[in-house]
Every structure is written in structure tokens, then in C-alpha cells.
Design goal:
Helices cover 6% and strands 23% of the residues. With 70 residues, the protein is mainly beta. The protein has one domain. The strands form 2 sheets. It has a two-stranded antiparallel ribbon with strand order 1-4. It has a two-stranded antiparallel ribbon with strand order 2-3. A hairpin with a 2-residue loop joins strand 2 and strand 3. It is globular and about 35 Å long. The two termini are 20 Å apart. The model has no long low-confidence stretch (mean pLDDT 85).
């Protein structure tokens, strides 16, 4: 059993994700569409592009809670 904090999970690069993955609609690892009750919230992340800083809120399916590769 893993006790990894989801906020510590290393994610794929933001620019490699689809818009749906960036918005938390699809799993950041496998791209499956997420359904309420079957989601792992990976915590807010900061994203910087040039002088612009924002947050995004990645999510994963329960198959990839600890950030297993695709």
C-alpha cells in the first residue's frame, strides 16, 4: 500500500497533455475520461509560461493514483 502524497507525484510535462487532461476532465496518464467518484485529485500545480504564472488541477483515474507511466 502506497502512502505517496498525490501532490508529490511527478506529472507529464504540461505542454504534452491534451486540453482535457490539462483541465482535469481526463486522466493525465492514460487519457481516459474521468467520472465522479473514480478520480484521484493530484493537487494544485503551478505552471509558468514566459511571464505568466497560473495554477492547474491535474487528476488521474484510480488505475494511476501514484503516477505510474502510461
Amino acid at each position: 500500500m502506497s502512502t505517496t502524497d498525490p501532490a508529490d507525484v511527478r506529472l507529464p510535462r504540461f505542454g504534452t497533455l491534451t486540453q482535457r487532461q490539462q483541465r482535469g476532465q481526463d486522466c493525465v496518464w492514460c487519457g481516459v475520461t474521468l467520472v465522479a467518484g473514480h478520480v484521484v485529485d493530484l493537487g494544485p500545480r503551478r505552471y509558468r509560461r514566459a511571464d505568466w504564472l497560473t495554477q492547474w488541477f491535474p487528476r488521474a483515474c484510480r488505475k494511476h493514483p501514484a503516477g505510474e507511466a502510461r
